[in-house]
């Protein structure tokens, strides 16, 4: 949505000077267009003068001597007003397109502003959340009173800012997307993407997942988002798409659990261990025409054999 009551969205675009200037120019010409009284059609204005002259002649039998000048005057007066109105209409249309093109081009700056605003809101929410002392809703806050009640009031006010920031985020992202990408954005939004970096549904508590997928935010969710440390505003449409792609990649597993780092590693081959030699071992004497080999010096002791089940 281009024109909105969302204060965070207006502030985000206002941080981009070129967009703010284009917004002012478009608002000014739009006001001129609305205040301008739309003139009559020149041909119709001239036709009315001619028709009046003919009607008058039918009654009086006198042809007006100034008909030509009056008809021409009516025509040119209407033409003058029509020309100005056409200029206002075309100017408003061109300035609107210019404003929207600048928004699309400079959307990254607006998203960066929203990211800073989100960090400020979450910082305040984290501080207030620490003072809740287990309070989860308004009734519990009223019963607890004191610092918990004040913290809950602060979080309730911050919740509105948080909602506006998220709505502004999706508005900016939608403004730079084509029709196919907008369909993807709606799907990603319903799935809960664009709120937490590295988001995977299985890693998020159910109450938080519901808030992320429905955009019905609550104070507990705001406190959770402030403490998780990975809440963010995508830096661009490409940034969001990359995060969604990474989050939806299948997870590989081995005996130790999930693996996400597939970079090759070099493992040195260890030296072979020394062979175990027991007291009962004898060296092989393959050629009896030669002296027997010296006895082996044992370096290991055989353990007790595993008991057989049938001896139990």
Automatic annotation (TrEMBL):
<feature type="region of interest" description="Disordered">
    <location>
        <begin position="249"/>
        <end position="268"/>
    </location>
</feature>
<protein>
    <submittedName>
        <fullName>Uncharacterized protein</fullName>
    </submittedName>
</protein>
<feature type="region of interest" description="Disordered">
    <location>
        <begin position="279"/>
        <end position="312"/>
    </location>
</feature>
């Amino acid at each position: 949505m281009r024109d909105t009551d969302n204060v965070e969205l207006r502030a985000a675009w206002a941080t981009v000077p070129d967009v703010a200037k284009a917004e002012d120019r478009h608002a000014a010409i739009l006001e001129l267009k609305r205040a301008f009284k739309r003139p009559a059609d020149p041909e119709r204005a001239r036709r009315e003068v001619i028709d009046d002259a003919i009607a008058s002649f039918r009654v009086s039998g006198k042809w007006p001597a100034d008909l030509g000048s009056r008809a021409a005057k009516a025509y040119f007066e209407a033409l003058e007003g029509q020309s100005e109105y056409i200029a206002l209409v075309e100017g408003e249309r061109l300035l609107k397109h210019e404003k929207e093109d600048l928004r699309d081009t400079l959307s990254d700056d607006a998203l960066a502003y929203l990211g800073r605003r989100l960090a400020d809101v979450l910082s305040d929410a984290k501080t207030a959340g620490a003072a809740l002392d287990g309070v989860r809703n308004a009734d519990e806050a009223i019963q607890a009173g004191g610092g918990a009640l004040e913290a809950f009031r602060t979080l309730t006010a911050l919740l509105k800012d948080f909602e506006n920031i998220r709505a502004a985020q999706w508005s900016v992202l939608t403004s730079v997307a084509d029709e196919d990408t907008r369909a993807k954005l709606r799907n990603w939004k319903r799935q809960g993407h664009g709120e937490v970096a590295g988001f995977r549904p299985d890693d998020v508590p159910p109450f938080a997942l519901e808030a992320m997928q429905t955009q019905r935010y609550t104070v507990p969710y705001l406190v959770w988002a402030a403490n998780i440390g990975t809440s963010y505003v995508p830096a661009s449409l490409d940034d969001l798409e990359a995060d969604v792609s990474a989050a939806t990649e299948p997870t590989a597993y081995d005996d130790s659990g999930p693996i996400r780092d597939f970079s090759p590693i070099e493992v040195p081959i260890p030296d072979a261990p020394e062979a175990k030699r027991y007291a009962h071992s004898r060296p092989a004497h393959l050629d009896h025409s030669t002296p027997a080999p010296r006895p082996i010096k044992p370096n290991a002791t055989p353990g007790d054999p595993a008991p057989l089940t049938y001896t139990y």
